[in-house]
Write a structure and sequence with these properties.
This protein is α/β, with parallel strands linked by helices. It folds into two domains: 265 residues, Rossmann fold, CATH 3.40.50; 69 residues, Helicase, Ruva Protein, domain 3, CATH 1.10.8.100. Helix content is 40%, strand content 17%. The structure holds S-adenosylmethionine.
Length: 343
């Protein structure tokens, strides 16, 4: 059930913090406990001084466990937006609205923005900032229903946006553009690629994660995520970001990463959930010799059939017997998994 924020019962922060706006309501959005929020817009520059003043006036204390590090370098905010190359018919998902500094930019460029914020106090501030954005759907919820499952509220907001686009006869892409909360960056990207694939993703993440997302076989960061992304996307680290780009400053460097999903590569993966699980199983033993890992997944070394099956795969793809998972490129993984899963 949808209902709006009760503006009348809350002190108006718009006068204090936002530009004066028309009171045009924008989009009713669903909250984590079933409540919905009416989004509204302004165009205040998100600087450290602005955030400190805003948070002290509303008595908001930052929760860094929720990845609440706000992007305060406006050139980098520009770069993030430009790198996403949003077109007017695109639908954009943003995870982590914060105070909506990025959201309002996305809203100016896209057909529709679905923005997700777990923290209801920030959702309220974001809503205050979005007075004029009639194409924003702000969902006050955890983006994840479980570790490996996106929230159904997020998926239904995206479905709704797609229906609205279809209704006006438009065709566009679905993009992920976000300064991602670091705690959920991996499951958000992995699960979207499983169940709601984006055409491209342009995100800020911790630098170490950016390395994992873009690593090639043999790189020290190469892991299941690298293969999962590398088997479906062209990847690029656009820029590394120092802690000073954020307030409060995180302890580590970050990076803007861009992923372009390549449909012709993705379509070679016959069963995406199965491939995803396969990679997770393999990379639990990243440093072990792959042959042993595959044999144990196939039934164990005491099973002559299991050993013969794996040896046949090794022969077919001309793999060295002592090769490790960390040395095998994503496209070869796709072939190995396909062969491994044949009945
Ligand atoms: N977009 C803003 C910006 O660029 O300044 C804020 C980005 S901040 C890095 C991450 C935001 O994600 C925070 O506002 C935080 O509350 C929110 N967040 C953290 N975990 C979340 C989750 N599981 N689901 C949705 N939002 C989450």
């Amino acid at each position: 059930m949808k209902k709006s924020f009760q503006h009348s019962s809350k002190p108006s922060r718009k006068k204090k913090f936002g530009r004066k706006n028309s009171k045009k309501p924008t989009q009713v959005v669903s909250g984590d406990k079933g409540e919905d929020v009416v989004a509204t817009a302004s165009a205040t520059r998100q600087t450290t001084a602005y955030l400190k003043k805003l948070f002290s006036e509303v008595g908001f204390s930052i929760d860094t466990k929720k990845g609440q590090n706000f992007l305060v370098d406006l050139n980098l905010l520009d770069l993030l937006e430009r790198s996403a190359d949003i077109q007017p018919d695109d639908i954009v998902l943003e995870v982590g609205s914060g105070t909506a500094a990025l959201t309002e930019r996305l809203a100016r460029a896209a057909f529709r923005v679905v923005t997700i914020e777990i923290d209801s106090r920030l959702a309220t501030l974001a809503q205050d900032r979005l007075v004029d954005a009639d194409n924003v759907h702000l969902v006050n919820t955890d983006v994840l229903a479980r570790k490996n499952k996106l929230s159904p509220d997020v998926l239904s907001a995206l479905d709704e946006a797609e229906k609205e686009r279809l209704a006006v006869d438009k065709k566009g892409r679905f993009l992920l553009v976000a300064n991602l909360p670091y705690c959920v960056a991996t499951p958000v990207i992995s699960n979207l690629m499983l169940s709601k694939p984006f055409a491209s993703a342009t995100v800020t993440v911790q630098y170490e994660m950016a390395e994992r997302m873009t690593a090639s076989a043999g790189h020290h960061s190469y892991n299941a995520l690298s293969v999962w992304i590398g088997s479906q996307c062209r990847t690029e680290i656009i820029r590394s970001l120092p802690p000073a780009a954020f307030w409060p400053r995180p302890k580590v460097d970050s990076a803007i990463v861009h992923l372009d999903l390549e449909e012709h590569r993705r379509s070679r993966i016959l069963d995406l959930p199965r491939f995803h699980t396969f990679l997770r199983n393999i990379f639990c033993h990243r440093r072990k010799v792959l042959r042993g890992v595959l044999i144990s997944l196939a039934g164990g070394k005491k099973s002559p059939e299991a050993v013969a099956r794996i040896d046949a795969i090794y022969e077919k793809f001309n793999l060295e017997r002592n090769i490790r998972a960390e040395s095998i490129d994503p496209d070869t993984f796709v072939k190995i998994e396909h062969e491994f899963s044949l009945p």
